[in-house]
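Example 9 (inverse folding). The structure is encoded as follows.
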């Protein structure tokens, strides 16, 4: 009997998870098409002169036990600190053997402390906002009174129907706290006002967070601390620790790719899916452009699993096949793009005033949300604090300056050298660095990083109805579903798709159910995802 074949578009977390699940749970042959030369999608790690960049920051944490176990199957958990390097977090294999295989030493997951704070009024505030004395002092009595009063008012008379992200946030935090800590930053990220963003975004990204949950977490933290890495009883936005590959997220996905190929799967790099051949309500083949050899080939498929942007997928199906209204919806989907500037420095001006020990006496944050309105930078990553191994020379400080933009706009189109100069000036403006301390810099542009919940998104269900009707087509992942999924959400959609294929389930509802309710629909979806 001829072995069935699944073509998987994209070698990011969703695509690679689907390939591995197919190989280990079915006899279906996966062929993964990746248009770039990198493994991991936006979860890749970029190596610049030995200094590694994590695009957007990827904390390996999930409320799904299946995902947590899956990660640790790929790379073992590292638990024993090195004798002479406890402060930096440098570690040895879990076995603790001095003569361990070098590959084993490097291929591990570290346990890292989570700290993110907001930089506002040239001061630090905990993120999410913590109602403690430091917050009260930084805000001042007048602003604090306004925040308390507006919160009381919204609890007395809440907005009955949340149509926008603005209304979603005001209902949970009050108008003054929303204006202080949410409005400007969110609009910096998305480039539109919060009143133009549907409430769906908040329902997915901060669904369980509120003043009430923040207070409960603060009280529980005083009494006892959840020491388990699973942190099952902790709201996702409030977790205290996470797993992280020693050399960045791309290291784990490169390991998954290696295992996929070792199990007999195929990964074709620099191969771009351009045309989808549909017939009798089914995807029959994919036309692929091989960018290395400037040639085309057609790959027959029994199943098609797509993580490519929905807009491009619909275009590839052809105007003579796809209904006009579906083409219009796809054409109207909007994405937000992303730029990271990597800065290598001798020192920064942000000194550590916490109880946490750090190298170079720098602040212990993984990343810092820049709330200041006089600069365009959105977030600042401190790669030393994600993993000390991301930095070639541990005496230096390696920063990632993150900007949100639209492909082709003023920020996106700046020349590299001018953008780097601009970024350095921004950090000088808000008192974080001195320009003369910069040793080196690089810039990376990533298109279609964030699928937006405006544009034609309010009609997305019409598009979904059409793609769901194609029996052997499965949309998974962030761009594949045009949904702001984290890596664990993307993995769960891949697992659900493979389970449907294996079980002969034609409905795609369980795939779309991932990341629509608190705890990622774990109670409903996981019985269908059993091994």
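The amino acid assigned to each position is listed next.
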């Amino acid at each position: 009997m001829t072995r069935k074949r699944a073509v998987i578009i994209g070698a990011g977390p969703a695509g690679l998870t689907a390939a591995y699940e197919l190989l280990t749970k079915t006899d279906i042959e996966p062929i993964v098409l990746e248009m770039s030369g990198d493994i991991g999608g936006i979860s890749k790690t970029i190596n610049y002169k030995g200094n590694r960049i994590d695009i957007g920051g990827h904390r390996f944490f999930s409320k799904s036990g299946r995902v947590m176990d899956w990660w640790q199957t790929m790379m073992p958990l590292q638990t024993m600190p090195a004798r002479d390097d406890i402060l930096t977090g440098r570690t040895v294999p879990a076995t603790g053997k001095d003569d361990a295989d070098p590959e084993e030493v490097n291929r591990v997951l570290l346990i890292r402390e989570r700290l993110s704070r907001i930089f506002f009024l040239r001061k630090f505030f905990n993120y999410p906002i913590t109602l403690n004395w430091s917050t009260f002092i930084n805000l001042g009595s007048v602003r604090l009174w306004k925040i308390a009063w507006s919160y009381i008012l919204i609890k007395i008379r809440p907005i009955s129907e949340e149509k926008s992200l603005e209304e979603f946030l005001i209902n949970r935090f009050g108008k003054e706290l929303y204006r202080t800590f949410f409005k400007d930053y969110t609009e910096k990220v998305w480039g539109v006002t919060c009143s133009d963003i549907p409430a769906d975004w908040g329902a997915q990204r901060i669904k369980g967070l509120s003043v009430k949950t923040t207070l409960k977490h603060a009280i529980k933290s005083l009494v006892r601390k959840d020491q388990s890495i699973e942190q099952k009883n902790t709201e996702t936005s409030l977790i205290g620790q996470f797993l992280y590959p020693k050399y960045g997220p791309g290291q784990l996905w490169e390991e998954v790719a290696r295992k996929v190929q070792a199990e007999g799967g195929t990964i074709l790099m620099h191969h771009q899916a351009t045309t989808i051949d549909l017939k009798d309500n089914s995807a029959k083949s994919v036309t692929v452009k091989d960018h290395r050899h400037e040639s085309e080939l057609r790959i027959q498929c029994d199943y098609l699993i797509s993580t490519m942007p929905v807009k491009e997928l619909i275009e590839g199906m052809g105007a003579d096949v796809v209904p006009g209204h579906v083409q219009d919806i796809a054409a109207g989907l909007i994405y937000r793009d992303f730029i990271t500037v990597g800065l290598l420095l001798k020192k920064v001006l942000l000194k550590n005033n916490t109880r946490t020990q750090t190298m170079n006496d720098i602040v212990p944050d993984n990343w810092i949300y820049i709330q200041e309105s006089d600069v365009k930078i959105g977030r600042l990553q401190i790669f030393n604090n994600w993993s000390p191994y991301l930095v070639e020379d541990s005496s230096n400080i390696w920063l990632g300056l993150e900007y949100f933009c639209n492909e082709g706009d003023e920020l996106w189109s700046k020349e590299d050298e001018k953008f780097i100069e601009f970024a350095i000036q921004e950090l000088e403006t808000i008192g974080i660095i001195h320009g003369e301390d910069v040793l080196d810099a690089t810039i990376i542009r990533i298109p279609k990083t964030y699928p937006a919940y405006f544009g034609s998104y309010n009609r997305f269900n019409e598009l979904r109805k059409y793609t769901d009707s194609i029996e052997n087509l499965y949309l998974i992942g962030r761009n594949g579903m045009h949904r702001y999924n984290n890596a664990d959400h993307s993995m769960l959609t891949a697992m659900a798709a493979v389970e449907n294929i294996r079980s002969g389930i034609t409905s795609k509802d369980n795939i779309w159910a991932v990341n629509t309710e608190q705890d990622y629909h774990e109670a409903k979806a996981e019985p269908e995802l059993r091994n």
